[in-house]
## 1
Amino acid sequence: MKIGAVTLESPVALAPMAGMTDTAFRRLVKRKGGCGLVVTEMVSSEGLVRGIDRTLEYAEYTEEERPVSIQIFGGDPAVMADAAQIVEGMGADIVDINMGCPVPKIAKHSAGCSLMRDPAHAAGIVRAMAKAVRIPVTVKMRAGWNEREVNAPDLAKRVEDAGAAAVAVHGRTAAQAYRGESDWSLISQVAESVSIPVFGSGDCVEPEHVLQRLRETAVSGVLVGRGALRNPWIFSQAAALAAGAPSVDDVPFEERGRFLLEYIDLLLRERVGEAEGFRHVAPGQSTAPVPARGRERWVINKLRALGSWYTKGLEGGSQLRVAINSTETIDDLRMLIRGFFGIGVEAVA
Ligand SMILES: Cc1cc2nc3c(=O)[nH]c(=O)nc-3n(C[C@H](O)[C@H](O)[C@H](O)COP(=O)(O)O)c2cc1C
């Protein structure tokens, strides 16, 4: 499928997830195969324009993640257009607008999902960005603000007219947050009402769900969020099923453990500036090396965040989660993971 001039090899993409879909995680997902597009965590347009280091970090990506979409949030069309130009200057393939975040801190600044309540303003942001850049501008929205204001089909049409190259819809309202189920019949209705590609999002936690949505609804693509945090192999498994495999095998326990060890290694390298191929707004604006102790704490916190999803459904998963949460050093974390997943030290080296 295509988004503007960008070709995706698979219609199944990694959904943007703040705190989770960092460059290390995205690279590992890509290495497992089957993922057609990765989207960064949401990045503040104001932070980008002001060149704030922490914001720039969120937008970092590596070549092996391509095609890559950088998601930005904000409510000011001029700032969003400037931020889109910065994203384009960083070499990203796509710039995505967050119109789905329900968190009050974001929504109260006329950004995130509150943009859905002002469709003319939302379309104005798309128009300003589409005029400012040559890369495709896409929009990720929810079903609507609340059950009385479900307007994804109307908003999708408006942003298409304003120049959006694709739309993604999470079929819950902001008021719902993550309660209830994603409304795939509404998502399908959106797909039928516009001629740009529409990605559906919500509750695809098994590879079979991905295929079912692709086959039974009008969407062009599917975003996988939480399902990928539990099972980063979901993309390659969905691709295998799509290619005709009758079923997919469980990922070997050891391999699941190795994923976590690789994640730790990538995170550690990233923060000392050893990773190759990072793109920044300008040379010299790369992340300053973090002192060893701060780095260790950051990596441990990252593992705790991923662990809370990754261990779900795993045999003994809750014990592992508790153990990860009480581990204080990287060495102990590695030892814990090797022990739990039965990985010998020599197998890792
Ligand atoms: C931890 C977490 C962080 C998220 N952060 C973002 C975000 O930054 N931008 C965004 O558009 N959606 C975000 N989402 C929403 C997801 O992209 C996705 O639409 C939603 O989780 C439903 O899909 P799923 O059931 O496959 O997880 C986030 C979801 C989770 C669970």
## 2
Amino acid sequence: MNIHLVSGGCGFVGRNMVKRLLKTTNDKVFVVDDLSIGRHPSEWLDEFTSKNFKDIEIIGKDERFYFWKGDFRDFLFAFRSNPRFIQEKYDLNFDRFSDVFHFAAIVGGRLKIDGDPLMVGLDLSIDSEFFYWLTRHKPKRVLYPSSSAAYPTSLQTEAGAIQLREGDIDFKKNLGTPDMTYGWTKLTGEFLAQIAASHYGIHIVCIRPFSGYGEDQELSYPVPAIALRAAKKENPFEVWGSGKQGRDFVHIDDIIDLIFILLDNVGDGSAYNIGSGKLTSFLDLIKVFTSFAGYNPTIKPLLDKPVGVHSRYCDMSLVKEKFGWMPKISLEEGMRRVYEAAKKKS
Ligand SMILES: NC(=O)c1ccc[n+]([C@@H]2O[C@H](COP(=O)([O-])OP(=O)(O)OC[C@H]3O[C@@H](n4cnc5c(N)ncnc54)[C@H](O)[C@@H]3O)[C@@H](O)[C@H]2O)c1
């Protein structure tokens, strides 16, 4: 029997992964989330039934979804005192987790990354416990989500932004400076992933998603927030900074697709970009959504808001060459889906 572990499985990426696993496999899925940001499964599963069982909820008619609400570090600590605590406490008959997706992290948008960097720095503590646990538990395969924030910010300036390639981070050379404590934790995580593979034989792959978005993303992120304001026909339309700063937007369904391809093909801890390869400014994004809404507002720049690096986008050629993969969902189609979801809330 396969049981997959999804930490942070009630967050944006996690719940999309859980839904995909439940839909495309017959496997069991064990989710750990403290709900500090994430939403309880009753809010995002179409058919929700649950029963409580010794500190966990068993969810769904076929009882394949186990939900443990709490800090992932406490979950990992419990393994230290008894490596078989899951099997014994919850009557689960399995040897080890199959796929482990580690999405539990303090992420937030730009406000949190710039405004509370030492809270975000707690990711170091979550990740270091996680990597240590991997070396003892030895799951079959592991996904570590790094981030495009691990890339040197010097390559993302207004004057000199380039399409970021995987090789722009090289642990054998100078690494450059990543984006705040968030980027540092992700860079450290990538390094630990390589050690987990080389020293402990763990099958692990890292991803560097760029700006992932989707219909059910939190409103603290720009895409759903801009979509909602466009649906409400905001005018003048506020934008953080000049709006000329740009990002590489990629739909969550594409992110999940590539994760499975990478898990099947990479196990040495190396990292791959997940993006579209295209740079879209926030002004362009506003145009896309306001054109869906059928109006042309005046733009009001908010120059006191944090904006992060000027331009962050990727080169997807390595992923295309190695795995023949490019995102399927165009910016227009993906943003249309977000807009339709926002309209229902407006
Ligand atoms: N969304 C993106 O575009 C993107 C881009 C790059 C990297 N990532 C990475 O993917 C992962 C998931 O991101 P997301 O966008 O889903 O974030 P999210 O904030 O929506 O999800 C994180 C989840 O972890 C939970 N959590 C936080 N601390 C926890 C703890 N100590 N114990 C248990 N649960 C805890 C939160 O409640 C939340 O549900 C993160 O590691 C993030 O850095 C995401």
